[in-house]
Amino acid sequence: MDKKHTQMNDSHPETNMPVGYPPQYPPTAFQGPPGYAGYPGPQVGYPGPQIGYPPPPAGHPGPGPAGFPVPNQPVYNQPGGAAGVPWMPAPPTPLNCPPGLEYLSQIDQILIHQQIELLEVLTGFETNNKYEIKNSFGQRVYFAVEDTDCCTRNCCGPSRPFTLRIIDNMGQEVMTLERPLRCSSCCCPCCLQEIEIQAPPGVPVGYVIQTWHPCLPKFTIQNEKREDVLKISGPCVVCSCCGDVDFEIKSLDEQNIVGKISKHWTGILREAFTDADNFGIQFPLDLDVKMKAVMLGACFLIDFMFFESSGNQEQRSGVW
Q1: How far is CA 153 from CA 54, 107, 127, 173, in A?
Q2: Which has more confidence, 119 or 257?
Q3: Where is the composition biased (Basic and acidic residues) (predicted)?
Q4: How far is Cα 249 from Cα 261, in angstroms, rounded to an integer?
Q5: What is the mean pLDDT of the chain?
Q6: pLDDT band at residue 82, thresholds of 50, 70 and 90?
Q7: Per-residue pLDDT for 313 more than 70?
Q8: What's the confidence (pLDDT) of residue 49?
Q9: Considering only 29-43, 75-89, 266-280, which range has the smallest mean pLDDT?
Q10: Alpha carbon separation from 219 to 124, 125, 161 (Å, rounded)
Q11: Which long-range contacts link 162-167 to residues 24+ away (Cβ below 8 Å)?
Q12: 192 pLDDT exceeds 60?
């Protein structure tokens, strides 16, 4: 009895199974049937990894040019961004979508972070604004850079006309925002603020037009044919003291809220000593990508009109 029990507890040296049970896997010394030569060796002349696979067929495009992003993988260290921050993977391009706007088809929220310019903080010398545009996962979608000459920036201040260039993860300019010089006084309601959104550059996809109102900041979102599509309405007092400021995006009859543009509170020090602001934009996921791009332009116009001055000296109404 004890001898039989001892035999049952002895193990095969390769499988650790008791005597009497066949091994579940072949031993490590198993080399296949007679004539089996193992996995094929490296292929001579194949430029890819030497793992024994046959070479690609003739005419195969190969792994792509150096620096080209791998599909469905985050891309790092691309133009205009800080090292270590991933870019949003490029989604499939929907039908009738301007090139570069396919990223907007997959998101319902945008986060905009303005970069702090050290020269501007130390000297008060106005520099070109730069913004990171991210999705809700923190992946960078675009990078925006202002293109305005020194004299215009420092003479006109927040009321200056500007060109804002929006770049994708390949360094291509996919959108251009053009703000002309307009009057910023309530005494001239016939020449209020506006911004034109182009995607691709040179092709207008929409406009944001300020609507005169004695107390509230109001705007109208228009398509490329200058037809009214949506409305934007802000608070009577545009002040971000210890809290967010919301601009509601509404239907044309202003009965339904379809989204909002929010200026986020960034802390007392940053608000007091810089004009670098953080914004968030929310809109329906199935909204036309062109209108999403126009809302992005509306956010930049609102930033320049109400929050570009440092020291929390925001303008207090939509007509000043």
Answers
A1: 60, 33, 7, 22
A2: 257
A3: 1-13
A4: 7
A5: 76
A6: low
A7: no
A8: 45
A9: 29-43
A10: 30, 30, 18
A11: 162/304, 164/129, 164/300, 165/201, 166/133, 166/142, 166/296, 167/79, 167/80, 167/142, 167/143
A12: yes
Q: What are phi and psi of 297, to 5 degrees?
A: -65, -35
What pLDDT does 243 receive? 76
Region at 226 (left for phi over 0; alpha for psi -120 to 50; beta for the rest): left
Residue 77 lies in a domain: no
Quick check: is 44 in a domain? no
Does residue 252 fall inside a structural domain? yes
- How many other CB atoms are found less than 10 A from the CB of residue 65? 7
Helix (H, G, I), strand (E, B) or coil at 247: strand
Cα 254 from Cα 213, distance rounded (Å): 15
CA distance 252 to 143: 31
Q: Cite the DSSP H helix spans in the chain.
A: 2-9, 118-123, 150-156, 268-273, 289-302
C-alpha torsion angle, residues 17, 23, 25, 31 (rounded to 10): 120
Per the structure, the complete domain to which residue 229 belongs is given by: 103-307
The domain total for the chain is 1
Residue 179 belongs to a domain with what CATH number?
2.40.160.200
With beta carbons less than 8 A apart as the criterion, state whether 39 and 52 touch.
Answer: yes
Paired residues of 221 in beta bridges: 208, 230
Say how far apart CA 168 and CA 5 lie, in whole Å: 72
Percentage of the residues of the chain whose pLDDT score is greater than 70: 63
* Residue 113 backbone zone (phi > 0: left; psi -120 to 50: alpha; other: beta): beta
Give the residue from 249, 251, 250 showing the smallest Cα distance to 299: 249
Domain assignment of residue 178, yes or no: yes
Give phi and psi for 4, each to the nearest 5. Answer: -65, -40
Return the biggest CA–CA distance within the chain: 109
C-alpha–C-alpha distance, residues 31 and 278, integer Å: 63
DSSP of 204-241 = EEEEEEEE--SSS-EEEEEETT--EEEEEE--SS---T
